[in-house]
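Tokens for chain A. Residues wanted.
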């Protein structure tokens, strides 16, 4: 049986996403695929404690990389928006390190840097080049009548969403990075 769950995670919530996927597997739902922005497709399975891990490769993974991950016992599940999803039964993780996709903190920091470069900075650029000018145009009376109200509401809403996402993701990624650099 297939089932779709709707759950939204930001680019900085990947650790929370991994925990949620593990929880769903314990409930008897294993991840089959993810459709952006927030649709997770699951298949019914025997409840089991399975560790889920994600890596951000932004479509740069090589066959050698995928083979290395497989050699360490990780099953490739799916890919979405540059994120690769892997899983491994917790019973196969004999040590804490076996339950981790990355063997060192430097790799974890590199993941955060890549997510910031490839996902957060483009968000900032769209905000500065599209949302801010659009909002300023509506405030300067570029539009009139219905269009003025519509674009004021639209760009005002986009402004709030973008500011929230940029601040939230920026601080969360910074905290994740500092957690692995200050050990």
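Reply:
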């Amino acid at each position: 049986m297939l089932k779709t769950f709707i759950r939204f995670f930001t680019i900085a919530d990947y650790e929370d996403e991994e925990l949620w996927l593990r929880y769903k597997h314990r409930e008897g739902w294993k991840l089959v695929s993810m459709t952006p922005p927030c649709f997770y497709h699951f298949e019914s399975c025997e409840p089991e404690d399975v560790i889920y891990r994600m890596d951000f490769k932004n479509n740069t993974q090589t066959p050698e990389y995928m083979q290395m991950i497989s050699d360490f016992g990780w099953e490739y599940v799916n890919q979405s928006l540059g994120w690769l999803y892997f899983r491994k039964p917790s019973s196969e993780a004999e040590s804490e390190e076996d339950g981790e996709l990355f063997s060192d903190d430097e790799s974890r920091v590199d993941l955060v840097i890549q997510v910031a470069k490839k996902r957060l900075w483009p968000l900032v650029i769209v905000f500065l080049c599209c949302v801010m000018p659009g909002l300023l145009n509506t405030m300067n009376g570029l539009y009139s009548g219905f269009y003025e109200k519509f674009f004021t509401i639209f760009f005002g809403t986009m402004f709030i969403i973008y500011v929230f996402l940029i601040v939230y993701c920026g601080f969360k990624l910074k905290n994740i990075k500092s957690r692995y650099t200050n050990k």
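The chain has a mean pLDDT of 94. The longest strand covers residues 29-35.
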